[in-house]
């Protein structure tokens, strides 16, 4: 596999930096509007408007025939995002940013291991190895240590 360009490594790192900030902002929003679901809706509306403007500016609007060709699981990404935003606004403030994000990371890495192993969702196949399982177990130990305070 060729070495990725530097920005392909920076984007996920920056996304990771922003996730706990997003969780905290959405938790504060939920507090202000007295509703976790309303906060998630507001968050998605703002994000949707921003994306709509970018899609229009880039002239990348999909055709109706393209949309008709999508399967049910193509539409599920938004639901998964809504679940994350809602659970972050609800659970994040109760368990704290570090424990919340370490649990998110453990869940992400566990699913990533399966996605890579089986080549699901468009990822290239990369078989499970002892090193990968060991790394995931170490993340689990980290979550346990963090939860003990």
Largest sheet: none
Helical coverage, percent range: over 70%
The beta-strand count equals 0
Helix/strand/pairing category: mainly alpha
Order of helices and strands: HHHHHH
User: C-alpha Rg, in Å?
Assistant: 18 Å
N- to C-terminal separation?
40 Å
Q: What gross morphology would you assign? A: globular
What is the tally of helical segments? 6
Which range does the strand content fall in? under 5%
In words, what does this structure look like?
It is a single chain. 78% of the residues lie in helices and 0% in strands. It is mainly α and 149 residues long. The chain folds into two domains: 1-95, no CATH class; 96-149, no CATH class.
Task: Give me some keywords for this one.
149 residues, mainly alpha, 2 domains, 6 helices, 78% helix
Question: What's the topology here?
Answer:
Blueprint: H1 6-33, H2 36-58, H3 64-68, H4 76-95, H5 97-118, H6 130-147
Quick rundown:
The protein is an all-alpha fold and 149 residues long. The chain has helices at 6-33, 36-58, 64-68, 76-95, 97-118, 130-147. Helix 1 crosses helix 5 (97-118).
């Amino acid at each position: 596999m060729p070495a990725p360009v530097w920005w392909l490594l920076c984007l996920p790192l920056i996304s990771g930096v922003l996730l706990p900030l997003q969780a905290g902002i959405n938790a504060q929003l939920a507090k202000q509007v007295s509703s976790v679901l309303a906060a998630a809706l507001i968050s998605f509306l703002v994000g949707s408007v921003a994306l709509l403007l970018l899609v229009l500016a880039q002239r990348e609007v999909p055709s109706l025939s393209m949309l008709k060709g999508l399967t049910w699981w193509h539409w599920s990404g938004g639901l998964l995002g809504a679940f994350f935003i809602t659970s972050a606004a609800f659970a994040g403030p109760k368990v704290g940013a570090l424990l919340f994000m370490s649990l998110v990371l453990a869940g992400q890495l566990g699913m990533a291991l399966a996605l890579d192993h089986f080549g699901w969702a468009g990822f290239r196949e990369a078989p499970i190895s002892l090193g990968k399982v060991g790394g995931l177990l170490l993340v689990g130990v980290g979550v346990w240590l963090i939860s003990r305070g």
